[in-house]
Design a protein that fits this description.
The chain is built from eight helices and 20 strands. It is α/β, with parallel strands linked by helices. α1 links the parallel β3 and β4. The termini are far apart.
Length: 400
């Protein structure tokens, strides 16, 4: 019987893929649920390792409800004493560069990342030590030098800085779409559907999940990379160890023709004070991006209203006027509400389901996950194929 063909449109170009053949092959059949940064890259890496993969997402790659949605995300390797993430970010930077070289899509914009600190510079010192240990380029910049180098920034209250020249930002939504296109183009399958909650294993394994269209999906192995929905899907195993939080993001308009706030004139920046505020100049021509990294209130990623409060806009504008005086009266030209899916210790969750060894749970991005996508794909694919053991830093048992 010939395979049925399905047309999928991601962006402008129609894509064709064949449904999984009815005849069972020797390749392991893996279902990856969630087509964001973690799930999409995992699916692609598994396809490249010979697995038969079906990738599923409820609303599509890069959709507005996903933690991987939105136009841009920062990529940097400074993590203070959390050196495991410095190592992972270094690998992710290499893989993003290789992906852009192969496909020529320019998802990674290398602007560098400027870190600014007040009196407490313990994070700066630890980050520089870790970056140097991993041979990631880093510059310890004096404040006087920074004023000359980036005169569009007001460094009042800043006591120390460092600069990551290899850092920058990523085109998030577009990259998610492209990764799914690659999964399909290299032999995987993509389906838009939601998995019914909760997910229950029968005996010592999960054999099948029920989808929103009423169909059942069977697989040898399941990878759930569903971001803020993991707690709902696995209330007994994950539950409140994943907390979706509301995060407001703002885009301010720069003066016409003003090149000072383009990404070739000003790097990605992080203001590490009482609150961690970050921003992306250039920002895919969407406007000057500014966001507060502090975890917001609990938020329902499915039905939560994504309108902004007047107070949040005022806070963003006050910070902008203080740190970037030329933008004090800049118009707000765009905004969005996204969410983090935070674990209690802000570390990722990458582990087997304790009652079903053929189920892997991957999440807890905690606001610093998107950049790691390709490195996460390598790691999870190695776990699924038995090439590496789980790391206790990311285990579910740490919450007991």
């Amino acid at each position: 019987m010939p395979s049925r063909r399905t047309v999928l449109k991601l962006g402008a170009a129609p894509l064709f893929f064949a449904r999984a053949p009815l005849i069972r092959t020797a390749a392991p059949h893996v279902a990856v649920i969630g087509a964001g940064a973690f799930g999409g890259w995992t699916a692609l890496e598994l396809v490249r390792r010979g697995a038969r993969v079906v990738l599923i997402d409820a609303w599509g790659p890069g959709n507005a409800r996903a933690s991987s949605g939105g136009e841009t995300r920062v990529i940097r390797a400074g993590y203070g004493t959390r050196t495991i993430y410095t190592k992972m970010a270094k690998r992710a930077l290499e893989l993003w560069g290789a992906h852009d070289q192969r496909y020529g899509r320019g998802f990674f914009k290398k602007t560098g990342a400027l870190w600014m600190f007040g009196k407490d510079d313990a994070f700066r010192k630890a980050s520089i030590a870790a970056l140097e240990a991993e041979r990631v380029a880093v510059q310890d910049v004096a404040v006087a030098d920074a004023r000359r180098r980036w005169p569009q920034v007001d460094f009042a209250g800043i006591s120390s800085l460092f600069f990551e020249p290899e850092a920058g930002y990523l085109l998030a939504r577009r990259a998610c779409e492209h990764v799914v296109e690659c999964v399909i183009g290299e032999g995987g399958e993509y389906r838009q559907a939601a998995v019914a909650s909760p997910v229950r294993a029968t005996g010592s394994r999960l054999s099948v999940v029920t989808l929103s269209d009423g169909q059942s999906l069977a697989a040898d192995t399941f990878v759930f990379a569903c971001g803020p929905w993991l707690g709902t899907l696995f209330p007994d195993v994950v539950g409140k160890n994943i907390t979706p939080t509301r995060q407001d993001v703002f885009y301010f308009g720069t003066p016409p023709g003003d090149i000072r706030f383009r990404d070739d004139a000003l790097p990605v920046w992080v203001d590490y004070g009482e609150r961690l505020i970050y921003g992306i100049p250039g920002n895919a021509n969407r406007g000057f991006k500014i966001a507060d990294d502090t975890s917001g209130p609990a938020f329902d990623p499915t039905s939560g209203q994504r309108d902004l409060s007047a107070g949040a806009v005022q806070d963003a504008r006050a910070f902008l006027a203080r740190r970037f005086p030329a933008l004090a009266k800049a118009p707000l030209i765009g905004s969005e509400v996204c969410q983090y899916e935070a674990s209690p210790d802000s570390n990722y969750i990458i582990d087997r389901h304790p009652a079903a060894p053929n189920v892997w749970i991957v999440g807890g991005g905690s606001g610093h996950g998107f950049k790691m996508g390709p490195a996460m794909g390598e790691l999870v694919a190695s776990l699924v194929t038995g090439k590496a053991p789980p790391d206790p830093v990311f285990s579910l048992t740490r919450f007991k």
